[in-house]
């Protein structure tokens, strides 16, 4: 798989995750914050809000499908090589685990960035109490 194919897959995966994890505008309300409320508490509230919505189920399904696709791709490639090469058997377990670990890390970073951007937007649009 060439680098351009990987970039296209990552763009599609990222776009779908952003679509499924960003709360819709009609669900978002202008929240009233106290002046002392810290960025971390608003960030946690935003992350919880983005996880506990109906669309997040589809993001979880997409994540599971991506991990299953990675695993089945490596298993198929390993079977094909071992069945048709005539060389001693090989194992693709380590590359499969490393690729799935990279997908988990990429998804976690993307989720945190989505939460951070939503937090900044929420703070910017918030009304404050004295």
From TrEMBL:
Q: Which UniProt keywords apply?
A: Membrane, Transmembrane, Transmembrane helix
Keyword hit for Transmembrane? yes
Which superkingdom?
Answer: Bacteria
Record carries keyword Transmembrane: yes
Mind telling me which residue stretches traverse the membrane in this protein?
6-25, 56-74, 94-117
What is the name of this protein? FtsX-like permease family protein
**Species this chain originates from:** Sporosarcina siberiensis
Organism taxonomic ancestry: Bacteria, Bacillati, Bacillota, Bacilli, Bacillales
């Amino acid at each position: 798989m060439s680098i351009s194919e990987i970039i296209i897959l990552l763009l599609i995966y990222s776009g779908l995750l952003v679509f499924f994890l960003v709360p819709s505008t009609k669900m978002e309300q202008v929240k009233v914050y106290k002046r002392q409320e810290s960025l971390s508490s608003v960030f946690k509230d935003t992350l919880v809000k983005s996880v506990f919505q109906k669309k997040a189920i589809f993001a979880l399904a997409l994540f599971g499908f991506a991990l299953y696709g990675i695993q089945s791709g490596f298993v198929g490639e390993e079977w094909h090589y071992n069945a048709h090469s005539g060389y001693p058997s090989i194992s693709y377990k380590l590359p499969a685990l490393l690729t799935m670990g990279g997908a988990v890390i990429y998804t976690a970073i993307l989720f945190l960035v989505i939460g951070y951007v939503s937090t900044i937007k929420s703070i910017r649009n918030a009304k404050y109490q004295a």
